[in-house]
Amino acid sequence: MTAGWRRDVPYNELPTPPDADRLETRAVLKEAVEARAALARLDESAASIPNAAVLINAIPLLEAQASSEIENIVTTTDALFRHAEDDAHADPATKEALRYRSALRAGFDHVRSRGLSTSVAMEVCTTIKGHHMDLRSLPGTRIGNPSTGEVAYSPPEGQEVIAGMLADWERFIHADDGMDPVVRMAAAHYQFEAIHPFTDGNGRTGRILNILMLTDAGVLGQPLLYLSRYFIETKADYYRLLLKVTAENAWEDWIRYVLKGVAQSSIQTTTKIADIKSLQERFAHTARAASRGSADSELQSVLFEQPYCRISTVMARCEVSRPTAVKWLDALVSVGVLTDIKVGRERLFINHDLLELLARR
Ligand SMILES: Nc1ncnc2c1ncn2[C@@H]1O[C@H](COP(=O)(O)OP(=O)(O)OP(=O)(O)O)[C@@H](O)[C@H]1O
Ligand SMILES: [Mg+2]
Question: What is the pLDDT of the chain when averaged over all its residues?
């Protein structure tokens, strides 16, 4: 047991994470090498796809869906992509997941221009929640055990205390100590969750920060890792191992759990990218046979960035008239690679194979 810690008392003595010597055990380093290799392959495969915008739109939406599901905000892949460009008619859960995607994108841009800091965390949480989020100032926040509902952990209290701990967290993520960036990400994720700076949204904010830490460290070029799926599929372990760091100083178990997730989800994301790439090739082949216009390369990009496509989007992106856009899209419907549906007075064209591929676990 960690001396001085009680699950029902705010943990104002939360220590900073240990240094590299203590965290990087032999077992951890071995798994870090595997995680890094899998990440490198993911990064390569993302760079090799002809149109990166396809991935930058789709993968963060899947990440958003899985990460929000941990909080029981359940939306379908179908609803998510249907409302991706305009959420005016989306249900609340879909809107919330779409905000997660926006937060990830904005966070990525922010980190690229100004680096990763506490203010990014606040901005990310604010975007996720859809209203301004400040550091917690009121007492009483508790983390429950998801299966029994009992109090499992009480985060620190007092805005000053929290701000001080976040400043330490920020120093930790930028320390020049040679720690492996994935090991650092795992340790920083625990630390962020244990500080629990906000009244809500800490899990999702922390999971976005994970990806941003990897892009900031130069390990990933784009925020394309779909890691939250691992956390949701292993939610009991996720909660159990976070708590075990606090209660028993079990850093190694936690770090190894995260490294395994990074390796696994990198491999799965790489496979998804390869599948998207080969679907793009099949699609282009069929489109060429359908009509010359349907093979327009800009049109192909649009249909993979937006599996739910509007006529107006094609007009704008391909700079064609409405009749031309309709003619191209209809040709693709006639050869079976698009399905059209009517929503109100509007026609929507669905790249159904892509949607099915994205939704597949
Ligand atoms: N024992 C623990 N110690 C520290 N952090 C924990 C512990 N158990 C769970 N957590 C973290 O707290 C998060 C939940 O906090 P909160 O409800 O503020 O976040 P959320 O984003 O709204 O929810 P969720 O993470 O469920 O989507 C969990 O996702 C996990 O990251
Ligand atoms: Mg919550």
Answer: 94
